[in-house]
Amino acid sequence: MKYDKTMTYKKIPFLVVFLLFLSPAVKAQLRVVAALCDNRADPVGINPGDLFFSWEMQSPKEAVMQSAYQVVISSSQANLTAGQFDVFNTGVVKSDRSLQVHYSGKALQSAQTYFWKVRVWDTDKKSSAWSAAQQFTTGLFTPADWQNARWIGYEDWPDSGRVVPFVHLKMKAGDPRIFKNARSPLLRKEFTTTRKVAKALLFISGLGHYEASINGRRIGDAFLSPGWTSYDKTILYNTYDITQQLRPGSNALGVILGNGFYSISQERYVKGTGTFGNPKLIALLKITYTDGRTDHLISDQSWKAAPSPITFNTIYGGEDYDARLEQKGWNTAGFADKTWKDAVLVTRPKGKLLPEIDYPVRFLDSLTVRKTTVVGPNTVVYDFGQNCSGIPRISVKGKAGQTLKITPAELLHADGTVNQADGVTPHSYSYTLNGDGEETWQPRFSYFAVRYVQIEGVRVNQDESSQLPLVTGLTVLHNRNAAPANGTFACSNALFNRIYTLTDWAIKSNLQSYITDNPQREKLSWQGEQNFMRTAINYTYNVYNLYRSLIQNMTDAQHENGLVPDIAPEYIKFEGPFVDSPEWGTTAILDSWFLYQFYGDTSVIRKTYRMMTRYADFLESRATDNLLLYGLGDWLDIGKVTPVGVTATAYYYHSITALSAMADLIGKPDDAARYRNRAEMIKTAFNKKFFNPEKKRYATGSQTAMAMPISMGLVEEKYKKDVLHILVTNIQAVDANRLTAGDVGNRYLIRALYENGHPETLFTMTNRDDVPGYGYLLKHGATALVETWDGKSSQNQLAMGHILEWFYEGIAGIAQAENSVAFKHLKIRPQPVGDLTWARGRFHSPYGWIKTSWTKTANRFRCQVEIPVNTRATVYLPAKAASRIYKNGQLVRNYKVEADAVLLELGSGKYDLKVE
């Protein structure tokens, strides 16, 4: 284009004036920046009974609240764009509610995609623009919706051969129930599309796990799908939109199956041995054409089946692969499958098919080799520098038939070879080459806690004369639940930052389709981890959908007498406190309470109320004079031992108090009163049994025994200051600022200190590496949080990670006010303790990002705060009576004073606050 001075001179100024005129209106506009269905973006497999909508907003103005909303749904993208809301229209609803807005329209159809959007009004009754268009796809509501799809496999395993529940560890030699490792099959089906495809939805489940492909390409990127469940009660299926992967004419679906927790043979390491049956598949492909017609492709005997190159696989023992058995093109159209046999109709599993509502497990990090060491003839150990849940991915060149043995581990022996401590030997992988150039392989159906990888049977240098295979590439792929990151934290203390990273690796390594105990020895869902760590986990990852899945697992695992066992799914039936410990089992009540407090969900309470009350009744039946005097106690504590009854009864009181509040929330006042009365009786009995009013001491005076009553509201108000004083005095004078609490009590020790005016004591206890604790673990080489304070046992376990609560709620100052729900009312109270000179934190609440960033000098404290739209905050600033307070550069003259803090009441917005 030719440069025109006249155009520039005459037209640009007018445009600038126009934009300047328009700009204030644009900037002042309230915007919907995120719109979620069932707490996910564009979810699939939705059940209408669970359907709800939430959204987040932003505005450049301060103190903005929503005054109304409108949600609309259409049957097509075109209708939504044209304003034809033919499925649902709330109209303008006067409400500040922007979370958990439940669907109340007409019945939705199964296996359909719907399109929706939302707009909102602010307190000045000004409307936002519509949000970006969103969509959700419904699942299959009834067995009939599966269109007579059948469970198929390569070979059946009759119910008479089931070993359920699993045997703990291995069966004894000669036990007639011992079975061989179930082979991993390939299943394929060719089909033809003759018209133009508008939509293709695949609904699929494979037990124990599956990988599916269409025309030779993977469908999705999940690992170990579907998630682990009580297979006799619930089986999860997944939904995929594969419209873009179909081709005109011939197509082929391919599926490979693995064992997972569905079948665990005992050839290698096992935590438990048992089987629900052999691997099996059910699938339905719904194809909708542009002319409105529909085809259904179902799993049945017309599919073909053959053994896969996976010759061994268990979730505990590892996996073997023989590349010579590969059949190239097996999952593409036109493959010659005449030698394959027809798939067989297998014994139908007992569980009900439900859509998987949680995020899938994916590979979300890739670790590279930090150090390579030759440890013996043809044996090399690779150090990746970080312990994580993961699998090796290897590239290699060699001859057909050569086999590599690959062993992952957390530790090394003195001679440099890998050390699978904790009795988990052997967990290993083997790969047999096909000799076809560079080959790349990774396990499909097993994983481990890995920092080191040992490979045997390889060339140890670049010697061309060697006949052994040459490793050309090696990485570790880290698997975890794909829940979005919820927060970040950093401060001026380098040790605290390393503790944060240490704990984060343990958390994400144990977030799978449920929360595991550790990625090597257990892989079970011990309830204590989620009970003690749910708040800390939630500050780092959005676990709403995960906790809904965990609640389903607990409901499925509940015994006839009301007991909710310590693990769920209850693959292994343990005995004594390992099946019934109240500190573990009360998760059955407190998970629902958590989803209400942190996400505002009351629907889960209604669904789980019967399960919760049955468990509460079970606890009452086990109580002696309102006390629970059994269980695992303060697991792995050190120093003074806390009586089991302290931790068990404290959790009993906490859960019954929460149950009373939940009964009120769902309109059951009589139940609420009954549980309130029970809670008061528990509190009275607890203090009578464990509290010495003369010494102001609980039980043995251990950190846990003193802290839990303070944090859980069991201390009578008149004694609280004295009990707190003795706790702090004993920590300083008797324990010499050493940490002694175990994974039950540690959380409450931390909270008792930072919530009650003693963060300096907590700082002193944490800011050291000379005694067992967080710093000690780092000093001795840990890269993920370890099971015990002295660094023994599992090298990757999240149970002691409660310190993150202080990092976020204390140091960064991000918490919600008392009686607030879902962070509607924030409590911003940073704690600039010890030698800290700055800290910053970010937390993604259901209303949006909450951000704090503060710095401290000798004469000034500065805190920058971001508060989401539709919320408010009480901000506490450390200040003296003579201090001057500034907000966004303006002197603040009206404020409240509380002890050593100034209180500011702020609405949404970004604020720069200074204390001088």
UniProtKB/TrEMBL annotation:
Signal peptide annotation: 1-28
Tree of life domain: Bacteria
EC annotation from Swiss-Prot or TrEMBL: 3.2.1.40
EC primary class: hydrolase
GO biological process: carbohydrate metabolic process
SUPFAM superfamilies: Six-hairpin glycosidases
Domain Bacterial alpha-L-rhamnosidase N-terminal: 196-363
InterPro entries xrefs: 6-hairpin_glycosidase_sf, 6hp_glycosidase-like_sf, Alpha_rhamnosid, Bac_rhamnosid6H, Bac_rhamnosid_C, Bac_rhamnosid_N, Ig-like_fold, Rhamnosid_concanavalin
Keywords for the protein's UniProt record, in alphabetical order: Hydrolase, Signal
Domain Alpha-L-rhamnosidase C-terminal: 819-887
Pfam families per record: Bac_rhamnosid, Bac_rhamnosid6H, Bac_rhamnosid_C, Bac_rhamnosid_N, Ig_Rha78A_N
Residue stretches making up the Alpha-L-rhamnosidase concanavalin-like domain: 375-462
GO molecular function: alpha-L-rhamnosidase activity
Catalysed reactions listed for this entry: Hydrolysis of terminal non-reducing alpha-L-rhamnose residues in alpha-L-rhamnosides
Every Alpha-L-rhamnosidase six-hairpin glycosidase domain range: 486-810
Protein name stated in the entry: alpha-L-rhamnosidase
